[in-house]
Design goal:
By secondary structure, the protein is of the alpha+beta class. It has 13 helices and nine strands.
């Protein structure tokens, strides 16, 4: 029975750690954004410059510990590593839930979004399983001889780190974001007719002016009891509004595209029945300048030969963007949006979206953008 319990915990914890690390390593740039949120909460923003490297290494560590547990290599060190890591994760998720700071922990990336309390509960269950393994760490039997096990471990480390580096440089293998290929942006922004709305409960703090008695009532009780008609009772402070039931929430809810004067162009740009090339550079100060020059050359050919509308979307100020455009002799129209949706559109700075009728036909990291001739053959000639 004990041996069966150890194997159950070993397989469950191993697979979960591999899955968790793999999902985040699929989108290490997105995970680095989540780490930056935690750095801000704990006032260690000096680590922001290392967020991506930490994200790739942390994902690799999760996968490596999970794999090592499954094959039983270096069991004692692995048990210590799992215990320390799950305690660390448990602390972060509890802190997020209790103090309501980072409202999605990113445990499983964007594939399985969890609330902070759900994440904390998951970590506590994992902690119990890890404790079973930790107590019985000397009983975890390896599947291979020590030298063979170490070779497997080295191979797993190379694959784990290499996977994160690859997805960072060439985009996630599976896109779990709302701006994935095939998605219609305008449709993803709509709230269907009759969709349930958010339900709020208003709470009143009441005090009796004569007796000093205090009461807490929700809005329904407040009206039903007619206490509001009693002059002896007064509302102390401002009523508190609490969300009790979440209504329908569109997948895309924070996208607003504007020109330099603040005029909204969201619908116009996303309703065009023709191809549009959208270059997304959420931060021009950190964008790859060489890539922007290549994309500008691509935009010139696409515009002159096929009248393709080319757009630069950024969160920089109008002055900063115009200065950048002059320096790089950009031919694209410049529009502006908040950095958060731009980071979700494409995990690259810059990245490229090909859009038609509001639908994302394709998207590319700047490392993998097709040549002009490839775009013509695949898309523009068929317009």
């Amino acid at each position: 029975m004990k041996n069966s319990l150890i194997w159950f915990c070993r397989i469950t914890v191993g697979l979960l750690f591999i899955f968790s690390g793999l999902i985040k390593a699929n989108d290490p740039l997105g995970f680095s954004y989540k780490l930056e949120e935690y750095f801000e909460v704990f006032h260690i923003m000096f680590l922001n410059g290392f967020a991506l490297s930490i994200a790739i290494l942390l994902c690799a560590l999760e996968m490596l510990l999970g794999f090592a547990l499954l094959i039983g290599v270096r069991a004692i060190k692995v048990a210590w590593g799992l215990l320390l890591l799950i305690i660390f994760f448990g602390f972060l998720t509890f802190y997020s839930a209790f103090f309501k700071v980072v409202q999605t922990c990113g445990c499983f990336g964007d594939a399985i979004p969890l609330t902070p309390w759900q994440s904390f509960s998951k970590d506590m269950i994992l902690l119990v399983l890890v404790l079973v393994l930790f107590v019985n760490r000397t009983k975890i039997k390896p599947l291979f001889k020590p030298k063979a096990g170490d070779k497997w471990l080295i191979g797993a480390a190379i694959v784990s780190i290499g996977f994160g580096i690859y997805t960072y440089n060439f985009m996630p293998i599976i896109d779990f974001l709302p701006y994935k290929v095939g998605a219609n942006i305008l449709d993803e922004m709509k709230i269907p007719a009759g969709a349930p709305l958010d339900v709020f409960e208003v709470t009143y703090n009441l005090k009796n002016k004569k007796t000093g008695e205090t009461k807490v009532m929700n809005d329904k009780e407040y009206l039903k009891t007619n206490i509001w008609k009693d002059a002896n009772w007064e509302v102390v402070g401002n009523p508190e509004s609490v969300l009790v039931k979440k209504g329908f929430e569109p997948k895309i809810r924070d996208l607003s595209i504007q020109d330099g004067q603040g005029n909204d162009y969201t619908k116009e740009l996303l309703s065009s029945p023709f191809y549009s090339l959208v270059i997304v550079a959420y931060d021009l100060d950190k964008t790859n300048s060489e890539a922007m020059n290549r994309l500008n050359a691509l935009a010139i050919n696409a515009t002159e030969n096929y009248n393709i509308r080319t757009i630069l979307l950024t969160s920089n100020s109008a002055q900063s963007s115009n200065d950048f455009a002059k320096t790089h002799k950009l031919v694209t129209e410049i529009f502006y949006a908040d950095g958060v949706p731009l980071k979700s559109m494409v995990r690259a700075n810059p990245g490229v979206l090909l859009i038609k009728n509001g639908t994302i036909i394709n998207k590319w990291h700047y490392h993998s953008v097709p040549t002009y001739d490839q775009l013509v053959k695949t898309y523009f000639q068929k317009q």
